[in-house]
Structures are given as C-alpha cells and as structure tokens.
Design a protein that fits this description.
Length: 228
C-alpha cells in the first residue's frame, strides 16, 4: 500500500471530525526535547504534590473538540497504579496514551503509535514500564508458557525472560530482583521493536522528527526514571 493510501486508511479509522474540520496538521507543536522536559517537570510536580492539573474546564474540552495535538505518546502497562496523565501532571489532550498489560506491542498498538507520530506530529514516544509488574511476574512464574488470552501476554514478554536468563547476572532464586531485571529487559526490547517492526517510526527517528525513550515508574515513591 502506498503512502497516500495508507495515510488515508489511518485518518479514516481514527478521525471523527467536527463539521469536517481537522485541526491536526502533522507538524509537531513542540520539539521532542521540550516534550521530554515537560514530562520530567510534570513528574516532579506529581511527586511533590504541586499539581497544576486538578481537572480541566469545559472550555478546554470544547477547544479540543475540533482536533488534538498531543506532545507525547505513552505506551504503558494497564496496572491501575500508573495513570500517565497523573504521573506527569498533564491535562486533556496533552498525552496520547496506549495501555496494555506488560506494555507489550503488536500490529494494532504499532499502528496506533504510527498514527499519533505521523498524522498528529507527536514528537516523543515513551515506553513506560514499572516496578512489580504483574504481567512480568506471571511470565517468570510460568516460565513463559501461559495459556489462553493471558498466555498471549506471557508469550509477548517471553523474549525478555530468555534474554535475562542468558545474561546470567541475577539468579532466578532471587525472584524479586530477577523479575525487576526482566521488567527492564522487556522495556528495552519493546523500544527496539518499535524501530524494527515499523518502517514509519524508523523513518521518523532517522529524520530526527521522533525520539523514542525507555522509562520505568517506581511504585513505592512515584518517580519516573528514564532508562536511556
């Protein structure tokens, strides 16, 4: 499928415009350096309790009704303890959030990221894993051999389990530390997958129009640490 046809399919699938008006232009509103700085500053506010966003007004809702311009794409876990909008102290329309157990990826998730990066012009992707990830622990406990629909998640995380085992730096007998090592490896592998499995994202990265970073949320104290 050529570029024009592919873009048309993406737009048709995602955009419900108001009165036929589409506000998105595909050009980034800010640079990825600025976007990353905003996320870091927002997390500092979250930790300190100095929140700027306690709920957006209807004026903001109405303003965003004609289009969106998020400055960061967040691929993160479904765990109820890490809502990105709160962790980064953001409002409506600032983040394009994709949540799935284990922050894994597949063609649908890749397509969602491509849409935001290519059509909305979002300059930053953050792969956000977290401490004590239940999906990763299940993968470790089941040795990557889960069944059914949950088994599909386990299979997606299995490469991280295998790579961590092969590295041999942490004993599986120390379950907690080993799980955290698999969490870190999984985040790194998902980041690599975005480039390896998506020509669109690779082109944007190579053109210096997109930055993909890996990050980890610390459940105990609220800090998001960049792993790159």
């Amino acid at each position: 499928m050529n570029f024009t046809k592919r873009l048309s399919v993406i737009v048709a699938f995602f955009i419900l415009s108001v009165g036929g008006a589409i506000a998105s232009t595909g050009a980034p509103s800010i640079s990825y350096q600025e976007a990353l700085a905003k996320l870091k500053a927002g997390n500092v506010r979250f930790i300190s309790g100095a929140h700027l966003h306690t709920g957006d007004s209807m004026e903001v809702v109405k303003m965003l009704a004609t289009g969106q311009k998020p400055y960061a794409i967040i691929l993160t876990c479904s765990d109820s303890r890490l809502p990105p909008e709160l962790l980064f102290d953001t409002g409506i329309g600032e983040l394009f959030v994709i949540r799935v157990a284990g922050n894994v990826t597949d063609p649908i998730i890749l397509g969602s990221i491509e849409y935001a990066a290519e059509h909305l012009g979002t300059p930053l992707v953050v792969i956000l894993g977290h401490e004590k990830c239940g999906a990763v622990k299940a993968t470790v406990d089941l040795q990557g051999k889960g069944e059914g629909n949950i088994g599909a998640i386990v299979q997606a995380i299995q490469p991280a389990l295998i790579k961590t085992k092969d590295a041999g730096k942490i004993s599986e007998k120390d379950n907690a530390q080993f799980v955290e090592a698999v969490v870190d490896t999984n985040i790194a592998l998902v980041k690599a997958t975005l480039i390896n499995k998506s020509g669109v994202l690779k082109h944007l990265v190579d053109s210096d129009k997109l930055l993909i970073v890996a990050a980890k949320y610390h459940i105990d104290h609220g800090e998001v640490v960049m792993l790159d």
